[in-house]
Amino acid sequence: SLFDEPLAIAVQGLGPRQQVTLRTSLRDETGQLFQASARYQAGDDGELDLARCPALPGGSFSGLEPMGLLWALQPQKPFWRLVKRDVQSPFLLQLEVFEGHEERPGRLLAQAQHERVFLRDGMRRVPVRQGRIRATLFLPP
């Protein structure tokens, strides 16, 4: 998905009202790790849709925040910032679902990897160098 588009996150196949912890992580271009986690309880049908289920207290955030696992990403190294220097390569987002709400992750129930890209397919990137001006022009297909 494009980096600035909403991402729909849902988990299916859980037990009715099962308690789980979701964790996202990604590494920036220098290899620094960023992570966020949130505690949830599945519905009576065993499904968890972050657009409808609020995060419970105790994680990186709480409340109804469908994109919370992305905006709440925090660096493991203090004062580090998530910066993308090469927009031609994606960020690889890891999503993990753990059993329970413990401080230490419980049993891993599921995991997925998702690419967050910065350029649509066919987008052209043209460097601009004119006198003292340095820029990049992005042209759609």
TrEMBL record:
UniProt domain Acyl-CoA thioester hydrolase/bile acid-CoA amino acid N-acetyltransferase: residue ranges: 4-130
What the entry lists under Pfam families is as follows:
Bile_Hydr_Trans
Q: One GO biological process from the UniProt record?
A: acyl-CoA metabolic process
Q: Which GO terms describe its molecular function?
A: fatty acyl-CoA hydrolase activity
Q: Identify its protein family.
A: Belongs to the C/M/P thioester hydrolase family.
| Name of the molecule in the record | ACOT5 thioesterase
The species this protein was found in: Lanius ludovicianus
Chain's gene name:
Acot5
